[in-house]
From TrEMBL:
InterPro entries: BTN3A2-like_Ig-C (IPR053896), Ig-like_dom (IPR007110), Ig-like_dom_sf (IPR036179), Ig-like_fold (IPR013783), Ig_sub (IPR003599), Ig_V-set (IPR013106), IgSF_BTN/MOG (IPR050504). PANTHER family: BUTYROPHILIN, SELECTION AND UPKEEP OF INTRAEPITHELIAL T-CELLS PROTEIN 7-RELATED. It is found in: Membrane. Residues 1-24 form the signal peptide. The keyword NADP does not apply. GO terms for biological process: regulation of cytokine production; T cell receptor signaling pathway. The lineage of its organism: Eukaryota, Metazoa, Chordata, Craniata, Vertebrata. It comes from the Eukaryota. Keywords: Immunoglobulin domain, Membrane, Signal, Transmembrane, Transmembrane helix. The keyword Transmembrane helix applies. This is Ig-like domain-containing protein. It comes from Muntiacus reevesi.
């Protein structure tokens, strides 16, 4: 009788232990198509994420956050987009490309990129209590407007060349160079930011002579490597003010503006 009781008790304990065991859900990891990309202001950016091992994400919760989960960019849940949840800045600018959702791959496209969109993006998949994410970095750039050169005669011996351009992001490298490629020290430099967050730049140099003409103004975007240039060819004279007035008045053709653009994109 005691043996029977012991057997039943042991069996009951075993059943209780089995009931306490929680079977884990299928584990997965999330990877991205690229950890860093560059997008131009006004253009679009795409963030692709993939489940590993490949599996359907149609019934999972999928979303993107910007900058440490502080801004919800997009949320997909229960087979559809959850409208009204994304941060105001991203409303009507996002599209989910879900043709490969059955294999666990999704792509979020953001239109009309602005300077505020730069930074880290977190793509996450959530299935029950299991959640994993991948982090991507977006760098935003803007190639500014064509350069403009103004020639001025200050109240001193020499000639002032002023170069200005707007619509740049981030802050570019700006410099004047002579015909030998040497950088000419600037006499003044200023910048301002417009309502869209784009920079407007102005740089001036004071020339004592035109021995190393032509003189070229160069602005280079540090993110894309794109550069814009504008140059001026001056007559080979010493810049005494009265001579300069005569030269400009009677030989205006001696001042020739040239501009070149290098559109090659260099992604990091």
């Amino acid at each position: 009788m005691e043996l029977a009781f012991s057997y039943v008790s042991g069996y009951s304990v075993a059943i209780l232990l089995l009931q306490m065991v929680v079977l884990p859900s299928e584990q997965f990891t999330v990877s991205s198509s690229g950890s860093r990309q560059v997008a131009l202001v006004g253009g679009h950016a795409e963030f692709s994420c993939q489940l590993s091992p490949p599996q359907s994400a149609e019934r999972m919760e999928v979303g993107w956050f910007h900058e440490r989960h502080s801004q919800l960019v997009y949320l997909y849940k229960d087979g559809e987009e959850v409208s009204g949840k994304s941060t105001y800045n991203y409303m009507n600018r996002t599209v989910l490309l879900k043709d490969s959702l059955g294999e666990g791959k999704v792509t979020l496209r953001i239109h009309n990129i602005s300077v505020l969109d730069g930074g880290q993006y977190h793509c996450f998949f959530k299935d029950g209590d299991t959640s994993e994410e991948a982090i991507m970095d977006l760098r935003v750039a803007a190639l500014g407007l064509d350069l403009q050169i103004n020639v001025q005669v200050p109240d001193t011996k020499g000639l002032m060349l002023e170069c200005n351009s707007g619509g740049w992001f981030p802050s570019p490298q700006m410099e004047w160079r002579d015909s030998r490629g040497n950088v000419i020290p600037y006499s003044s430099k200023s910048s301002s930011v417009d309502g869209a967050g784009l920079l407007h730049l102005k740089m001036s140099v004071l020339l004592k002579n035109s021995t190393h003409s032509p003189f070229t103004c160069c602005i280079c975007n540090p993110v894309t490597g794109q550069e814009k240039r504008a140059g001026v060819i001056l007559p080979a004279i010493s810049f005494h003010i009265w001579k300069l007035h005569i030269s400009l008045q009677f030989y205006p053709i001696d001042l020739i503006l040239i501009a070149t653009e290098f559109p090659t994109m260099q992604d990091e």
